[in-house]
Amino acid sequence: MQAGHSPGERVGLATHVHSGMESSLQSRDVAGVHDFVLLENYGSEDAFINNLQKRFNTDIIYTYIGPVLVSVNPYKNIPIYTDDVIKTYRNIHYFEAIPHIYAVTNTAYQALKEENKDQCILISGESGAGKTEASKKILQCIAVTTGRTNQVESVKEKLLQSTPLLEAFGNAKTTRNDNSSRFGKYMDIIFNYIGDTIGGSLLNYLLEKSRVVMQAPGERNFHIFYQLLSSSDASLLDSLHLSPNTYYHYLNTSIVSMKDNEIDDIGQFRVVKRAMDVIELSEQEQTAIFTLVASILHLGNVGFSQDENGNASINAPETIATVAKLLACDAAQLTHALEKKTIIARGDSVTTPLNKELAMYARDALAKAIYDRMFTWLVQRLNSSLRPVDDEFNRTKVMGILDIYGFEIFGKNSFEQFCINYCNEKLQQLFIELTLKSEQEEYFREGIEWVPVQYFDNKVICDLIEERHKGIISLLDEECLRPGDTSDMGFLNKMSINLVDHKHFVSYSKAERTMLKQIPRDEFQLVHYAGKVTYSVHGFVDKNNDLLFRNLIEVMASTKNTITKAVFTEKELESKKRPETAASQFKKSLNKLMQILVTKDPSYVRCIKPNNEQTSGIFDEQLVRHQVQYLGLMENLRVRRAGFAYRRTYDVFLKRYKSLCPGTWPNFNGDPKDGVALLTQHLQYNKYEFSMGKTKIFIRYPKTLFMTEDLFQLKKNDLATLIQRKYKTHAARKNFLKMRWAAIVMQKYIRRFLAKRAMRRRRLAVEVLRRLLKGFITRDGEPTEDNMAFIQLSRINYLNRLAGNLPKSLVDRDWPACPKACRDVSIVLHKLYRGQQARIYRKNLSPEKKRQFDLKILAEKLFQHKKKSYTSTHLTPFENVRLPSELHQHKTQYETNQLVPGEKLMYCTNITKYDRHGYSPRDRALLVTNKAIHIVDIKGFKVKHKLSLESITELVVTAEMDGLLLIRIPLELKKDKGDLILQCAHVIECVTFIVDAVKKPNILKIASTSMISHNIIGGKEGQIEVTAGSELGFGKGKTGHLVVTVN
Ligand SMILES: Nc1ncnc2c1ncn2[C@@H]1O[C@H](COP(=O)(O)OP(=O)(O)O)[C@@H](O)[C@H]1O
Ligand SMILES: [Mg+2]
């Protein structure tokens, strides 16, 4: 097959599985071959069936016809459905492991993921063949295979739980199958781009709603009724006014009593409740559903009686009250709607009573409508729960699973079976279209050498049923829409007339004599692809009309139940158009389904039922052969054997495998066909292995493709490395550029920062330098901010220098030069220092020295700038004894002998005394005591004069450099004969001592005149004349004066 199975594109060789396959080949005598393609006698139906049987007998239920999976219902549990098995199949190629539904699923899933193509798995087979079970296995496989995140888990759980929920409401026990699907189901599993399940979407097809009100013998109503009644939840049943012991008309029309040993209703109810929770049906929604189920049971128990006018009336008003209560509508209104019928004719509404039969019909129609619409509501509710999150919508892929009611033949077949079988015709048609027909047509189109395989094309039957204007559905609609009394027989007649020549239609009027017995007058027979089915024409018109009286719709629209309120609307009543008939609707929905399916890559599971007893171990050869025939499996095999396992357009093939040949890699610019030719040459394809069509290459055996794919997978590693390398380089370079850029930016900032900092520093430095220079230049100026530092520094330096260079002695008047700024300080310091030095000097002075100084100071006071000799003498220390040494003894003696007590000698010197008359010189010694002045004879130290200190009035000296000393004494002191005229070598010293002793400094007079008079005793006066001369001299001048010559 081209579609769906392009196995070679997904090879993952696992050698251990190979050996598994080989061993299964070895054991084929017992277990048969796993792929019918390997059958030696592939044209023989017997061999085919024999192979199936061998496998069935060894509990191998799956066999391939190439990519098509044939499954035989084992009617017993075989241990091949564990999660481990699923995991094994996950990594194995389809053709490499023994056939399994998981292999089909996994192959489709991988194709979805890798080729990004929507998939669908079509499961066909008659009722009870195992379709629903197969669909569950597929779901299970997907659930185990796909992602494990919370969100995915929750979606998968919902998907899985949707099955038991829908089965409870849509499946029932039939004579064919205890769990027969009474509705068609198409489920899309929605995957995101990485292959995780992210949602789902369901389509439901024609529920067999007639079952709600009536079941054939041996069959049951839908499971949910029994499940609800078996519920152990007493309060639930109470609230619904239900009891397991009550007789329910809608259940007991069947001879099967409520309890069925085979079916675990109690357990199933729990499963259903859980499923409802998982699907996130609210408590309120769940109650609404159970209320509707209960309402239908109660409604079934509403009986009618008929009065003599033929007007129906309800028997048990309390039952209708219960129904009204449950649905939350007005009981009277409901009663009215069940007993009467309102028709709007040309704008007027006309109400007419119903007879019993019509009332019952109305009641049943209502029950069916409620159940049918509730079922559809439930599917929609499931869809809203399974809807994927919006943002993932664009890149999603889906895998559809079609599990629809299978072809079925009952003892009595009605409209429903007609629809179901029509549906199966359509699916068979699709199968033929996509496998047998299109494949062969393709070989022809592509110019491949081909011997056509004959097969039965059921298109003729499809046309018989659905052709516009001519088909059965059109005829049925015609009868239904016809004015006047329409009837089932009218419909049958129409068919008998119109379809008289059709090979696949037989009716009583057309039947051969031999068949007359088989076809009663009110029946017709269709020769379906899967067999002849005789349909009873009864109910066709009604069921096709599917009418619900408008008052009933009105009542339903007025109910408070969430579901009925939503599914019956006033709007429906307003619509003037006649609703489409059931068959037309179904036809439309089927055609839509076909359109959905053809857009996807299909995979096929063909289910076969081994017996009609629903028991394991029985292989009814006749039954199986029939199915093999109508399913077209032999033709399928023949096409498969003669055909090619794989085909692809040249461009696609080249695109995938071009990397395997240097001539086509990396690009082949010519015609893709030439490219492929080059490729096959390079790969050394055997000429039997493939064929070149007009637009496609056809490869006969999967193994050729496996080999190519293996090479590709290996090459992929190289390519991946190459891509990785390129990418890594690119990524690394990108990263590098990014880093470089970042570094540059960083550098920029850092540089700016550093530059700014340097600039700040330089500016600061300049400022500092400028200040420094300015400070330096102005360092001798007034203190400013700028020169302050210099000043400070020069002060410090000065002080340091000063400290090291302080004058050592007081006499040293030197003082280190100072900067201008320190001048004041220097002066102060100098003064302070000298003061300090002087203090120290003073402190260290001996009394003698001190005395010396006191005298010197006194001398200074007395003489400085006054007497010329002062400057030449002031540095000579004073001595208190200025006597030649030979006189010292005299002096001592004198001291001891002549001085009065308390009298102390202060000074003594030798002097020259001049007489007051003749001025003749006499050598004398002068002694100064603290009381008097003694003038003694120098020879013997005899006292000549003794003058008390108080008696001295004046001391006179000249301003010149002479040694004259005139001591004025009061005239009264006659004894002394006038003032004393002395010449003293150390006149300054002498006067100082005397003044010191007298303690009257102003006693001294320094005469500035050249004439000094002196008293002579007797009131006379002498004159002393001071004249300049070359040499110092004393002597009596011609004037009679004492002349003192000074230079
Ligand atoms: N693979 C299987 N393994 C075991 N039993 C199966 C298998 N397939 C089907 N059955 C049995 O057959 C019954 C009918 O199968 P089902 O799938 O409901 O048929 P269909 O949907 O085709 O009408 C199931 O209830 C189950 O008991
Ligand atoms: Mg089923």
TrEMBL record:
GO terms for cellular component: cell cortex; endomembrane system; microvillus; myosin complex; plasma membrane. Residues 590-612 are annotated as: Actin-binding. GO terms for molecular function: actin filament binding; ATP binding; microfilament motor activity; phosphatidylinositol-4,5-bisphosphate binding. Gene3D superfamilies: 1.10.10.820, 1.20.5.190, 1.20.58.530, 6.20.240.20, Kinesin motor domain, Myosin VI head, motor domain, U50 subdomain. Keywords: Actin-binding, ATP-binding, Lipid-binding, Motor protein, Myosin, Nucleotide-binding. Residues 867-1047 form the TH1 domain. It is a peripheral membrane protein. Residues 32-713 form the Myosin motor domain. The keyword Nucleotide-binding applies. Belongs to the TRAFAC class myosin-kinesin ATPase superfamily. Myosin family. This is Myosin motor domain-containing protein. It comes from Cloeon dipterum.
